[in-house]
Design a protein that fits this description.
The structure is a homodimer. Chain A is α/β, with parallel strands linked by helices. Chain A has 13 helices and twelve strands. Chain A folds into two domains: 152 residues, Aspartate Aminotransferase, domain 1 (Alpha-Beta Complex); 236 residues, Type I PLP-dependent aspartate aminotransferase-like (Major domain) (Aspartate Aminotransferase, domain 2, 3-Layer(aba) Sandwich), CATH 3.40.640. A seven-stranded mixed sheet of chain A has the order 2-8-7-6-5-3-4, sandwiched between helices. In chain A, strands 9-12-11 form a three-stranded antiparallel sheet, covered by helices on one side. In chain A, strand 5, helix 8 and strand 6 form a beta-alpha-beta unit. The radius of gyration of chain A is 21 Å and the shape is globular. At the A-B interface, helix 1, helix 3, helix 5, helix 6 and helix 9 of A face helix 1, helix 3, helix 5, helix 6 and helix 9 of B.
Chain lengths: 405, 405
């Protein structure tokens, strides 16, 4: 029997999805599972999208250009112009979600064995994309104590080697919800210019901000046109995760050209999501205000409740719809599995993503979880209450001699 | 300015799409371009698909499971059962086109520096997927003289090294249209069992057969459950290329598990194409008979006309909707570009894919093109007539001293 590759064996399973068999089993037993594990918004995809689908007048569902439908790229660029970023359609390559954008850009810019610096905890799939390309992730620790702010410049200097090609951040951050300030971006600019590094910024959550401070895009950093590559997606902005439409946005033509060759290899991104999604960029302030108000309410609910649970600590996130919380347990991989396998409260349990998978450093984040606040406030309230009860029961169980590990 | 990676620089541009800027320029000049370069069928996507989209009752376009929607996998398996292949939904992983299926399986089974044997000419993107994974393609030559049949077993034996992990064929073949016989598959079975190799078979064109001989799927090879991985797609079968829905089909659970980790990394395949496409598997004999009759007519038109042109040689393909033709020119890369840049006949020109990109061996196939017969017979007739005129003009041009190369 032929063996699978070392790369296949080494690929990490997604911490967001690896517990799915346990949640499926819980559901089969009739337990209601609150999904705080995945950033799947429950907000409705705007009616514009569905209306467009219902009124399609197409006979053949064709491939689109490898870099995306031209009119879609133009609309996308228009949205950027409206938020004060000067780009045009030629700066965009449409991809199958931001996932593919990250994958293509990493392969286009970083060779096997070369390094990328990413503050941790980091979006787990960054580790996967790097692993698929045999790229070395050099994590820089951030701390729950200061809300996961950008580490001091000295930490970056220490991590940079001749093999370092890029720094990657997610702003606002998945999984921590941390919202990087303009000053922090200027710090990164300085480091990248000094060491001639790419600055990759995942800005898919840029609308989801709760502090009143305006967003500062890496694309507006001066003198960084060749350095900055931004990743974007309509998944969260328009609750359209299943469309699988993302984008690479950069003024660096070489990066776009190399990425396009990877894009030609897979022929084209999905056509339907672009065709139906084009008009979503026309949505104005009303749409965004409504969405942000809803997420802010949820954030306030969930963070407030979490910090009332004895032993739980969770910084107040400035953006996105995630938070990383510290729990009074030794190993959240075991705890999260236990919550699904062995616990329910009032007929329900909670699924969270163990934070260990968001750390590249082995053993880090073992007592943390990522929580996505993508449910209605009432459900979030019940979910956090369920978590609190779970923690109580788990603590008792840990005291029983038979369960000592 | 940071540099792109060696991998990015080394990625080949798609021979199918690299001439797009020239065809765009021709169209801007008002020239009608017959697209024989790409397997984009002009047949209508079945009405079932569009009807489903028009009647969707969904509020949120969610991610689907990383291995695809369960009901879709069940329907897909049902279609396999109907054509005599015993598999169930658990043998499927839904992917973003067959492209992603190939990419995930190559990475799951073959490490950097290890080898895969592929008869050439081969589907150009196989070279791209291998290049992205730093996998070495070991081509085995097939010959236009015998219609690109499977090479003798001795050629495989010569190519196998301790680093060889898999053999990959496309049946019926893209780009040659060659339809592999059951006997040829049994030969491959013998080699794979003897050397413990994977047998990867791209069967996306399995319905498009014109010889009357029934299709023999690699999944029906005895004792090969752990060796065989099949790639599939709805793109060609249902003229739904833009849906980007493909599949990995195998009984090897380890390959599915490793591929799923790559699948989790990109979260999910597109939901819309699965939701709208589910019922297409209910289409019966009438649908397939109609499609096959149409392609057979086109094949007969295009192959008949090609072989009447002086100096052109084109074997009669047994399946798919491609043919590789030898032209009386030295370099089809230059000729195909010239056809778009400098030639028109009755207001039109022809875009073909230079065959060099379908060969892994440098310099091979320089006088060949791939032709996709995906247009109506009337248009194909005009296109081949245009090609004939182009060849005449090009031959004259070559005789002019100023154009000597």
């Amino acid at each position: 029997m032929p063996k699978i590759s070392h790369k296949g064996a080494a690929m990490p399973a997604s911490p967001i999805r690896k517990l799915v068999p346990y949640s499926d089993a819980a559901k089969k037993k009739g337990v209601n599972v609150y999904h705080l594990n995945i950033g799947q918004p429950d907000l409705e995809t705007p009616a514009l999208f569905w209306d467009k689908l219902k009124n399609l007048d197409i006979k053949v569902l064709e491939y689109c250009p490898s870099n995306g439908i031209a009119s879609y790229r133009e609309k996308f660029a228009g949205y950027y112009n409206n938020i004060g970023i000067k780009v045009d359609a030629s700066n965009f390559m449409i991809t199958e979600g931001a996932s593919e954008a990250l994958s293509f850009v990493m392969m286009s810019c970083i060779d096997e064995g070369d390094e990328i610096i990413i503050p941790e905890p980091m979006y787990a799939n960054y580790i996967g994309f790097a692993s698929a390309g045999n790229i070395i992730v050099k994590p820089i620790s951030t701390s729950i104590e200061n809300g996961f702010a950008l580490p001091p410049i000295a930490d970056f200097e220490k991590a940079i080697t001749p093999k370092t090609k890029a720094i990657l951040i997610c702003n606002p951050n998945n999984p921590t919800g941390y919202f990087y300030s303009k000053e922090e971006l200027l710090t990164l600019r300085k480091i990248c210019l000094q060491h001639d590094l790419y600055l990759f910024v995942d800005e898919v959550y840029r609308e989801f901000l709760y502090s009143g401070t305006p967003f500062f895009s890496a694309l507006n950093l001066e003198g960084m046109d060749e350095h900055v590559v931004v990743f974007d997606s309509i998944s969260k902005r328009f609750s359209a995760c299943g469309a699988r439409i993302g984008a690479i946005v950069t003024r660096n033509k070489q990066v776009l050209e190399a990425s396009l060759k990877f894009g030609q290899m897979r022929l084209s991104p999905p056509s339907l999501g672009q065709i139906a999604g084009e008009d979503l960029f026309d949505l104005g302030k009303d749409y965004y205000d409504g969405v942000i108000a809803e997420y802010q309410k949820r954030r306030d609910t969930v963070i407030g409740l979490l910090n009332k649970i004895p032993g739980v600590k969770c910084p107040n996130p400035g953006g996105a719809f995630y938070a990383v919380a510290e729990l009074p347990v030794n190993d959240t991989d075991k705890f999260c599995q236990w919550m699904l396998e062995s616990f329910s409260y009032q007929g329900a349990t909670v699924m969270m993503a163990p934070a260990s998978g968001f750390y590249s450093t082995t053993g880090a984040g073992k007592n943390q979880v990522r929580i996505a606040y993508v449910l209605k406030s009432e459900d979030l309230t019940k979910a956090i209450q369920c978590l609190e009860e779970g923690l109580k029961t788990y603590a008792k169980k840990q005291l029983e001699p038979a369960n000592a590990e």
